Amino acid sequence: MNADNIIIENERRKARNSAPFDPLTGEGSVGPRFQLIRKGERLWLPETMKRIRGLESLADETFERCRILHDFPYWAASYAYIKSKGGGDDRLFVLNRPQRILVERLEKIRREERPIRILLLKARQWGGSTCVQLYMAWLQLVHEKGLNSLIIAHQASATDEIKDMFDRLMLSYPVSLLHEEGETYSDKEAKTIGVGKARAITRVPQRKCKIKVGSAERPDSCRGGDYNLVHCSEVGIWKSTAGKSPERIARAAGAGILLKPLTMIVYESTANGTGNFFHREYEAAKKGTSQFEPLFISWFDIDQYTMNISDQRAFAERLLANKDSEGTTSDREQPGSYLWWLWEKGATLEAIAWYVAERSKYSEHALMAAEYPSDDVEAFVHSGAGVFDKYKVEDLRSGCRNPRFTGEIDSPLKPCAGIIPDKNFRKRQLAEVEFYSGTGAWKIWEPPQYSPGCRIESRYVAVVDVGGRSEKSDWSVIAVFDREPMLRGEGPEVVAQWRGHTDFDLLAWRAALAASIYDDALLVIESNTIETHDPYRNTDGDQSAFLLNRLRDIYPNLYARRQSEEDIRRGAPRKYGFHTNTATKPLIIATLVKVIREGLYIERDSECVDEFLAYERRQNGSFGAIEGCHDDLLMTRAIGLHIIFHELPLPVRRNINRIKPGMAGPATLSSW
Fold this sequence. Notes:
Elements: H1 3-17, E1 33-38, E2 41-46, H2 60-70, H3 72-79, E3 81-82, E4 91-92, H4 97-111, E5 116-122, H5 128-143, E6 149-153, H6 156-172, E7 193-195, E8 201-204, E9 209-215, E10 229-233, H7 246-254, E11 264-269, H8 277-287, E12 293-297, H9 312-321, H10 336-345, H11 349-359, H12 365-371, H13 376-380, E13 385-386, H14 390-395, E14 405-410, H15 423-431, E15 434-437, E16 442-444, E17 454-457, E18 460-465, E19 476-482, E20 493-500, H16 504-517, E21 522-525, H17 528-532, H18 544-554, H19 565-570, H20 584-597, H21 606-613, E22 615-617, E23 623-625, H22 632-646, E24 652-655
Parallel strand pairs: 5-11, 5-12, 6-9, 6-10, 10-11, 18-21
Antiparallel strand pairs: 1-2, 3-4, 7-8, 8-9, 13-22, 14-15, 14-16, 16-20, 17-24, 18-19, 19-20, 22-23
């Protein structure tokens, strides 16, 4: 690759982006097309019109009706008037390049007679919402009578704009096209009728359809009903409050819509962080586990985001020379490696030049990415200085999946009423632990395993991150790692997880039960929470050491911190639990950064991946989750993986005929 190659490829890209598009003749328009000479005019018509006999000789009105039925870009450019963005008279809707990408997808699904289900993730300011709404209007006004639509905006003011757009469309729309060919009509008949006092519903009597608009701020306005077409706009910024959530609003709106052709549900939004409803739905669509198809529109798909380059060769040479550079001289620019990545993604030199100029407006790349995402990974990661490589984090999703089992881990032995169980009774409970499938917060991706005649020593590690008991406090998490893959030169994997709110003593006992059934796993309890904010403190002082020591008397394989030579010489008591502090936290996060970067472990929970993406390095140098997000799952991985890779020897397979009660083998796996 040299500057000449880059310039040649750049000209090819620009030619592709600026290829002729004439929606009236059909040249360069959406979908597969064929040429037809009609009355001396060359037309490029949708291939679906080939089935119509005698196209060349059809009467003008009949041909027009056939054309608008098959050709949305033509219908929009001929009959759909919208407000001019810069002011002035209304204008006909001519698709721009990103709108053509969207319509290409919509039309492909419609032509294949499949229900339209799209999750549209987009950069700003290219008219995606307008395009979706006019496409639904086309289905209602042209394709089939009785198709009702529901449009939900993020706030009430946006509903007024939607209502205004539809009013403009209908104001100039020919009455004749609302009727079948040859049907009697009057030019003075009403094309729309308001329904109800709030006039949130508009009815088109000739088409026996209605258009309802509502907002996520008023959930009652968003309830579905007899609707066939639903557009949920800016879903990523819908707010959750008591009694309503984006999930409930969107799903209530789409409830009852049959999975059949000429039905449509579109969730459309710019991104607004990870872990929310829109992000979860988009990720499910990417995995193919949803009815929806994902569609991303980047900033360089939008023609207005380009600028002229005075010396193209010098720009190309500079781009090539710095393609491996990771450093910058300012917080208002991106490194050369990022600009080269934009080139490899398909951006033109002129688009990259615009990006360089626009980036200087922002003190952080995250702020730029929020407005102008370059891909669908970057779109969601928009806040703070991310700690982990977002693309390596996304690679972890390939291992994520639904748990094989959910339920509870407990002992069938129960203490008598009114009697506090002693140490011996607790030990008997740990010797008889079972998994109860069904209701419970445990996710089990792999039950505990054994091989007849042998045992893998130090196979399992269970890590506890301590939260609080109230619903508003941090989550408590127990994560179990299996180190058996390390015998094959692979990375450990997450095999089980519990997440919830509970008291510390109950959490510790729950963790001990799980560690016991997972072959007496090394049990690592993050202790700084209980050492610095101990709900069991009393006038006698800090009781946290007592609690962990009491657990040590019951459960034999409890993690203790390494002792210094001085501590050993003095005979100082061992301190149990992993203490996360200003000295240890950078170490465990550094380990996690490396493990994720090099793909050294297998993650199973997509919510943990979301936490990785929402984890940032703050201006004071500390680490933490962005506002509104959690890092409880993340901390179990950071602590566990640090101990696995830096404090434990490799697991060892030894011949021994030992079967742990409750462990899953050929005879007991079915009980899970």
